[in-house]
Amino acid sequence: MVLFLIGLGILLLGGFVYGKYCERVFGPDDRETPAVKLADGVDYVGMKKWRNQLIELLNIAGTGPILGPIQGILFGPIAFLTIPIGCVLAGSLHDYFVGMISMRNDGAQVPKLVTRYLGNGTNKVYNIIIWILMLLTGVVFIYTPGDLIVNDVLGMDIHGNVIWIVYACILLYYILATLFPIDTIIGRIYPIFGGFLIVSALGVLVGVLMDGGASLHPITEGGLISVHPTGQSFIPVFFITVACGIMSGFHGSQATLISRTVMDEREGRQTFYNMMLAEGFIAMVWAAGAMVLFNRSAAVDTSATLMVGLISKEFMGKIGGLIAIVGVIVLPITSGDTAFRSLRLMIAEQFKIDQQKKIKRVFLSIVIFIPAAAILYYAKSNSEGFATLWRYFGFANQLVAVFALLMVSTYLKGNGKNYFISLLPGMFYTFIVSSYIFHDPKLGLNFDGRLGLEGYTGSYLVGLVFALLFAWFVAYSAKKRKDMILD
């Protein structure tokens, strides 16, 4: 319990202090924001600060900050330190600077920012990765809430015909949310969903505090870092597993979306940085709830999705548990629709497709949803389909974050500001994604296995090389494109 409370203290106090510092480094001023300067009634729509904050939180808080920590706590109580420290130094910083740099560039999506600050060649690689991530995110956030609705709300078989009806309903909502102006659906109903999210997190927190820490101890053998039940290595697997609770590349696409609705640059810290802190809080609470329940039942092999319902009902009873489950269902739905909206805007921006005309929005949306439906069908129809989908989603998510931190570091260095605050987490996550993909025998290259090396020996060395290349590329890009970088 002490470690959990220390972690919450780091998240709150550290986030306040470091958030203020990040704001000072960026330097928000009185210039007109895109919401004011480019108002079009569709995507550039000024909204109140509290509404922007809630929408940003709901946009970024999919199932990641819940399912990820539930799985990540199996690595031991170290999660209660790594989640808040990583959230303060990396995740919140990532969301804040991406959102604010986008605001300074007329609400441009990340691909356009990458082109400006890192060059067209880098953008071609990035575009492929981010478009795939947005598509996979949308599909994952149809699959996950659909299964929760059928299993936990309707009490029916997730492999029956009903699941396809539920998937179709969610997809239809996504189509509507993608086509209508941002304040028609998202701006009006998301604040209501925010209440479900907050209630579920607070309910689990109260349950953990009432437990008194009796069950907050390592689930498996070990101390601060426990022996994972399946033998996975803490580095790099933990930081891929608990992606959204610490840092997520997907958030960049959502921050740039909200950068078009913020009416004052000084609202940026509360809207971007602090909302990621709130997601870190959600991750901490569900990690603690999972640790308590795992220790009570020793069900270390229980699936993360099933654990959501068990934790909710354990701490909040049947009615409160149902509210919590509804909150968890809402999370991915509210992230999925904005993922598709972001993908539409990215493609439109890349190919200069006017989005003020409804017919063009309809056509582009159809282009997006056809492959999404095909991937969903594959994931549900094959025994290993969703596992494969989730692995690609998780890796792509962190790789996208590396590109965003590369862009942020180049921007800060080119403007003569303290770029080390983004350079260091960027180098760290470059090491993480590189060593992970080189080592993984299923998704990756099985580098160590092919060379007959023990553990991650070879993959760690490769990760170190790529981390150094990250630092070199920041210096190279800042020098080469200095005229394009200056505000």
From TrEMBL:
The residue range of the signal peptide is none
Q: How does it sit in the membrane?
A: Multi-pass membrane protein
Keyword Methyltransferase in the entry? The reply is no
Please give the coiled-coil regions recorded for this protein: none
Question: Does Transmembrane appear among the keywords?
Answer: yes
Instruction: Give TM regions.
Output: 73-94, 125-143, 163-182, 189-210, 230-250, 271-295, 315-340, 361-379, 391-412, 419-438, 458-478
Its domain of life? Bacteria
Q: What is its main location?
A: membrane
Question: GO terms for biological process?
Answer: cellular response to starvation
> Boundaries of each CstA N-terminal domain copy?
1-142, 167-295, 304-432
Q: Name one GO cellular component term.
A: plasma membrane
What keywords would UniProt list here?
Cell membrane, Membrane, Transmembrane, Transmembrane helix
One Pfam family hit = CstA
Where, per UniProt, does this protein localize? Cell membrane
Family of this protein: Belongs to the peptide transporter carbon starvation (CstA) (TC 2.A.114) family.
What is the name listed in the Swiss-Prot or TrEMBL entry for this protein?
Carbon starvation protein A
Species of provenance: Urinicoccus massiliensis
Query: Upper taxonomic classification of the species?
Result: Bacteria, Bacillati, Bacillota, Tissierellia, Tissierellales
